[in-house]
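Per your request, structure below.
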């Protein structure tokens, strides 16, 4: 070898060569094949890099197969807010009945939901039903990403009819959330 020994001392070994006292590199004698290890029955031995490579490949396959929208948007309903003509907002539980006075009819119903994993600009549809018959439908999008409280409202120029009002939130034909409130006006109050 023609490399000089500027940073080496005699006896140093590099690339199967040893630095001699004369300052030149000398090739080491081949060591020959390693003695054969006795085979163990019932066990498979793997090299260390193989053991590390398998989990790394599995992890990369899982992440590569994950869709871009890994976390779907969820809309767990919280409570209904029923507004009457006397400007009072009444909290009504999910699926419960609200009984307003005939002199103070309902003029707005809202469903308060906890939005999780919203994606800005992604469309969804809100469908309002009365006793199973569609009354209104709107296509909407979220204005921001993340988790927050959302309120879906339906207003009326007159008063709301009595019956079971239901809101369904739909995306690509799949119902993401639904809830209902029953309005039952009490006459004579």
């Amino acid at each position: 070898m023609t490399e000089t020994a500027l940073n080496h001392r005699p006896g140093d070994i590099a690339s199967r060569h040893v630095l001699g006292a004369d300052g030149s590199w000398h090739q080491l004698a081949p060591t020959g094949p390693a003695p054969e290890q006795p085979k163990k029955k019932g066990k498979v031995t793997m090299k260390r890099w193989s053991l590390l490579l398998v989990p790394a490949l599995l992890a990369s396959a899982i992440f590569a197969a994950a869709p871009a929208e890994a976390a779907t948007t969820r809309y767990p309903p919280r409570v209904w807010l029923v507004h009457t003509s006397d400007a009072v907002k009444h909290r009504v539980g999910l699926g419960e009945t609200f009984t307003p006075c005939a002199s103070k009819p309902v003029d707005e119903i809202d469903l308060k939901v906890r939005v999780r994993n919203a994606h800005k600009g992604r469309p969804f549809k809100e469908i309002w039903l009365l006793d199973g018959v569609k009354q209104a439908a709107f296509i909407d999008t979220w204005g921001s990403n993340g988790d927050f409280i959302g309120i879906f409202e339906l207003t009326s120029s007159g008063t709301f009819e009595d019956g079971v009002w239901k809101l369904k939130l739909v995306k690509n034909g799949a119902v993401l959330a639904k809830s209902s409130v029953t309005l039952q006006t009490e006459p004579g109050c």
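The chain has two domains: 1-29, 77-183.

Regards,
D.
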